[in-house]
Write a structure and sequence with these properties.
Layout (H helix, E strand, L loop, with lengths): L2 H13 L2 H8 L3 H15 L4 E4 L2 E4 L1 H28 L5 E6 L7 H12 L4 E6 L2 H9 L5 E5 L9 E16 L20 E3 L5 H12 L7 E4 L3 H8 L5 E5 H9 L3 E3 L6 E11 L6 H17 L2 E2 L5
Helix pairs in contact: 1-2, 1-3, 1-4, 2-3, 5-10
Length: 308
């Protein structure tokens, strides 16, 4: 496929306007229209419905846009990688991470990379599954470290488990429940809560645990998926929260945050590595992956071996 034609198509697709796309590309409207019709002829499918009010993408255009964005990203990333290798640098890696990995796991990974490969340029994007997974599909990220979505993985992605994590109820070391030997679910309702987003699986699991104990689910004073916000708030009030155990592992050793001692209120989940199908990691991305696996082993997180 001609990359110039692909660029012209993507501009029209993103702006939903031949006129706006032509200005963006520095072309005349007739020239851009000719390019798009040439691409339609080459592919033998209609890409846009044309009306007096403008253009509307067809399902063929939606598919081509998803693939085309990835192709553009691949070309750009390859050029950048070659330029860096020419200068004797390892290159760059762009990864997405779940919020739970931001406080400790990713800083440990970056520290390891900085010590062994200081010339790497590393971009880290923190977002929930939908955000990082779609960025991997588009080729904007080399890979992502995240949890699996309940509805399954995008068909353009492949995954392998990195480690097994577990959501638990926790609090600050100064909390009244911090040193109690055995806590009953009803006691948890006496304190303010920081809960996961209500549309997510962790909240559903937490609510189910309370219902199983014949208690109403807690009312959230604060609802957030930000690990940094959660850990900061725990130090400022008698909050309880439901977070991945690995978030509090280091804080637990420093006695800043502790797991509440109760049974039956937890949720196992896998943290996985998401890749685009058919695309192996670059040299820089592989270095980051190797560092991730080393941190998993050193931190005592339970490694997994499943993949799809």
């Amino acid at each position: 496929m001609n990359l110039g034609l692909l660029e012209h198509f993507l501009a029209a697709y993103e702006t939903k306007s031949i006129g706006k796309a032509a200005v963006q590309l520095g072309l005349s409207q007739p020239a851009l229209s000719k390019s798009i019709r040439k691409l339609e002829t080459e592919l033998d499918v209609p890409l846009f419905h044309r009306t007096t009010k403008g253009i509307t993408p067809t399902p063929y255009a939606d598919t081509l846009a998803r693939r085309g964005q990835a192709i553009q990203a691949d070309v750009h990333n390859s050029i950048v990688e070659l330029q860096k290798l020419k200068r004797g640098e390892v290159g760059e890696a762009r990864i997405g991470i779940a919020p739970a990995l931001a406080p400790h796991f990713m800083p440990d990974v970056v520290a390891r990379i900085a010590a062994s490969h200081p010339s790497i340029n590393l971009t880290v994007i923190e977002a929930m599954y939908e955000g990082v997974s779609q960025a991997v599909v588009r080729g904007e990220l080399d890979f992502a470290l995240t949890n699996l979505a309940p509805r399954g993985v995008d068909p353009d992605l492949t995954w392998r488990a990195l480690f097994q994590d577990c959501f638990v109820v926790c609090c600050a070391k100064t909390h009244p429940l911090a040193r109690k030997r055995k806590v009953q679910p009803a006691e948890l309702l006496k304190y303010p809560w920081i809960t996961p987003a209500r549309e997510g699986l962790p909240w559903q699991r937490l609510a189910d645990c309370f219902l199983a104990a014949r208690c109403a689910p807690p009312r959230a004073m604060v609802e957030t998926n930000s690990a940094s916000v959660i850990m900061s708030l725990l130090q400022r009030g008698p909050f309880l929260t439901f977070v991945p155990r690995q978030i509090i592992q280091r804080d637990r050793r420093q006695a800043e945050a502790v797991e509440v001692n109760l049974e039956g209120m937890s949720m196992e989940r896998a943290i996985v590595v998401l890749h685009r199908k058919g695309h192996g990691p670059t040299k820089a991305a592989q270095i980051v992956l190797d560092a991730c696996e080393a941190v998993v082993l050193e931190s005592g997180l339970y490694p997994e071996a499943n993949e799809s």
